[in-house]
Specification:
Elements: H1 5-36, E1 41-49, E2 54-65, E3 69-71, H2 73-83, H3 86-106, E4 113-117, H4 120-123, H5 128-139, E5 146-151, H6 152-156, H7 159-171, E6 175-181, H8 190-193, E7 198-201, H9 213-228, E8 232-235, H10 241-249, E9 254-255, H11 266-273
Parallel strand pairs: 2-4, 4-5, 5-6, 6-7, 7-8, 8-9
Antiparallel strand pairs: 1-2, 1-9, 2-3
The protein binds ligand C2E and magnesium ion (3 copies).
Protein name: Diguanylate cyclase/phosphodiesterase (GGDEF & EAL domains) with PAS/PAC sensor(S)
Organism: Granulicella sibirica
Length: about 290
C-alpha cells in the first residue's frame, strides 16, 4: 500500500462512513419492528397561555430502542420519511393523540388543542384527509381541537395539491399551524395564501432574547407581523421566565418550552392539566416544572 496522508484520510473517512451506514441500517431495521409492534410512546408537551394555563399539548414521539437506547425523533423521523414508515407511524401518533385528548375532555378537563406533527409524505398521501376525518370520528374529538403542525417547506411543496388538501382539512374545521417558522427558505407571500391559523416561532428566534436587543427586536417583528395577519402565535423553546415575559409583553399568545415543562408521558401531562387556577404570579410556573 502507498503510504501518504491523503490516502490515510480517505481510509479514515471510509471507516466513518461504514460505521455510519451500519448504524443507519440497524436503526432502520429496529425502527421497522418498533412501528409494527407499536413499541413507541407518545409524550405530551404543554402549551400555555399568557397566564400560564395549559391550553393544550404537542404530541411528540419517543422511542427507546433495546440496542440504541433513547433515539431522538430528529434522528429516526428522517429515516421513517425515506422508507415510507412515516405514514403508518404518523397515523398511529394521530390516533393516540386524538384518543388521549378526547379522553381528557371526557374527564372534564378544559383542553383547547392537541397539536400533531405531520410530515410531507403523510400530507401528500392520497388517503390523508380520510384518515384524519376517520380518526376524529372514531375518537370523538371535535375537529377544532386538532391542530396539525406543518413546516414551511411542507406547506409550499407541490403547491396546488398541498393547498387543496389543507383547504379541505380547514373546511372540516381542523386547525393548521406552521411549525419552526422562520427557519425555512420560503418567501413570506405564502402566509397570505395558506389557510393557516397559527404560527409557531422556532426556538432559534427565542434563544438569547433576554440578552440581545437584536434578537429581541427580530422576535417582536415576527410577532407584530403575525398579529397583523390575524394569526395566533406560539413561541417554541422558551426556557426561562425572562423570555416568557418578553414574549408575552410583545403580544405572543402561547408559550411552549422547558420553562413550562418538557414533553412528558400522558399520565404526567394529565396532572399538569389538573392545575386549574392561575396563581397571581406566573412565577408559580416553577412548580409545574416537573420534568
Ligand atoms: P418540533 O415539532 O419543532 O418539536 C419541538 C421540539 O423542540 C421537540 O423536540 C421538543 O422536545 C423540543 N423542545 C421543546 N421545548 C424546548 C426548549 O425549551 N428547549 C429546547 N432545547 N428544546 C425544546 P423532539 O421531541 O426531540 O422532536 C424533534 C422534532 O422531531 C420535532 O420538532 C418534529 O419535527 C419531529 N417529530 C417529533 N414527533 C413527531 C411525530 O410524531 N411526527 C412527525 N412527523 N415528526 C415528529
Ligand atoms: Mg412541532
Ligand atoms: Mg417546532
Ligand atoms: Mg423543530
Amino acid at each position: 500500500k502507498v503510504k501518504n496522508s491523503g490516502r490515510n484520510s480517505f481510509l479514515v473517512f471510509d471507516e466513518k462512513m461504514r460505521a455510519e451506514t451500519t448504524l443507519q441500517m440497524s436503526l432502520e431495521h429496529n425502527l421497522r419492528t418498533a412501528v409494527h409492534e407499536q413499541l413507541m410512546e407518545v409524550y405530551y408537551q404543554p402549551i400555555v397561555d399568557a397566564m400560564g394555563l395549559v391550553l393544550g399539548f404537542e404530541a411528540l414521539l419517543r422511542w427507546h430502542d433495546s440496542v440504541h437506547g433513547q433515539v431522538s425523533p430528529a434522528q429516526f423521523i428522517p429515516i421513517a420519511e425515506r422508507n415510507g414508515l412515516i405514514v403508518p407511524l404518523g397515523n398511529w401518533v394521530l390516533a393516540q393523540a386524538c384518543a388521549q385528548a378526547a379522553e381528557w375532555r371526557r374527564q372534564g378537563n378544559k383542553l383547547s388543542k392537541m397539536s400533531v406533527n405531520v410530515s410531507s409524505a403523510q400530507l401528500s398521501h392520497d388517503k390523508f384527509v380520510g384518515v384524519v376525518l376517520a380518526t376524529l370520528k372514531e375518537t370523538g374529538l371535535p375537529p377544532e381541537l386538532l391542530d396539525l403542525e406543518l413546516t414551511e417547506g411542507v406547506m409550499i411543496e407541490n403547491h396546488g395539491q398541498t393547498q387543496q388538501t389543507l383547504e379541505l382539512l380547514r373546511k372540516f374545521g381542523v386547525r393548521l399551524s406552521i411549525d419552526d417558522f422562520g427557519t425555512g427558505y420560503s418567501s413570506l407571500s405564502y402566509l397570505r395564501e395558506l389557510p393557516v391559523h397559527t404560527l409557531k416561532i422556532d426556538r432559534a428566534f427565542v434563544t438569547d432574547i433576554e440578552h440581545s436587543i437584536e434578537a429581541r427586536t427580530l422576535v417582536e417583528g415576527m410577532i407584530d407581523m403575525a398579529r397583523s395577519l390575524n394569526l395566533r402565535i406560539v413561541a417554541e423553546g422558551v426556557e426561562n421566565r425572562q423570555q416568557m415575559d418578553i414574549l408575552i409583553a410583545a403580544g405572543c399568545d402561547q408559550i411552549q418550552g422547558f420553562h413550562i415543562s418538557k414533553a412528558v408521558p400522558a399520565e404526567a401531562a394529565g396532572r399538569l392539566m389538573a392545575v386549574k387556577e392561575p396563581t397571581p404570579e406566573r412565577q408559580s410556573l416553577a412548580v409545574w416544572n416537573i420534568a
